[in-house]
Amino acid sequence: MEPKRSEDGIVDLVDVILRDGAVIQADVIITVADVPLVGLKLRAALAGMDTMTDYGLFEAWDTRQRDRHRERQESSNIEQ
Amino acid sequence: MTQIDIDGESARDGLMTLVMTVVELLVEVMEQEAIRRMESGDLTDEEIERVGAQFAALEAEIEAIKEDEQIDEPVDQLRERLDNLVSDAVMTMDEPPQQGYSYNPIEDD
Questions:
Q1: With 80 as the cut, is the pLDDT of residue B95 above it?
Q2: 3-state secondary structure string, A6-26?
Q3: What residue ranges carry the coiled-coil annotation (chain B) (predicted)?
Q4: Which of A35, A59, B48, B107 pairs with A5 at a CA distance of 20 to 30 A?
Q5: pTM listed for this prediction
Q6: Binary contact (A11, B47; C-beta < 8 A)
């Protein structure tokens, strides 16, 4: 890993978003001639897992996923 | 002058440059997050080892592809342009919010 020039690069931008996490909420209704046709209700959370689990989101999943890998490793070690 | 050419002879190079740039950026973002997770101390040593090795392999692979396709230079140029785009946007956001509407009545004495 070589240190890259640390200016306001695109990587830094995404990194900041992942570090702090972002929540996007939007309600969109597409209307034609005053007749609503399409509705979109959006609530999205985007964050790095570190921040995600801090907020208690995906915590159980994260633990389960990593445990599963460890179990696979152990069972394959026993077979050898 | 950087221009991504996606027609004619250089179509392959142009597309390859675009794809590799995006992949490279993604990997770098993921690396940053991996470092954060390592530092937060909830990864086991074995996990840190595994993630580190995986990223090393990924980086080597990306470098090899760029070497093969001879797109080192164009990828760097594209990245620089993307970075400048972001810097400009950030600079613009640093400025005080522009008033969308200002009204200075002319005082009649």
A1: no
A2: CCCCHHHHHHHHHHHCEEEEE
A3: none
A4: B48
A5: 0.73
A6: no
- Ranked by mean pLDDT, the top range of A1-5, B5-9, B16-20 is B16-20
Amino acid in the structure at residue B24:
E
Q: Check B90 against A8: CB less than 8 A apart.
A: yes
The verdict on a CB contact (< 8 Å) between A8 and B79 is no
Pick from B37, B47, B86: which is nearest to A13 by CB?
B86
B42 contacts in chain A (CB < 8 Å): 53
Residues in chain A with CB shorter than 8 Å from the CB of B40 are 50
For the record, the structure tokens of B108 come out as 């009649």
pLDDT tens, N- to C-terminus, chain A (80 residues): 454 555 568 999 999 999 999 999 999 999 999 999 999 999 999 999 999 999 999 999 999 999 999 999 888 888 77
| Residue B1, H or E segment | none
For residues B98 and B93, give the distance between their C-alpha atoms in angstroms, rounded to a whole number.
Answer: 10
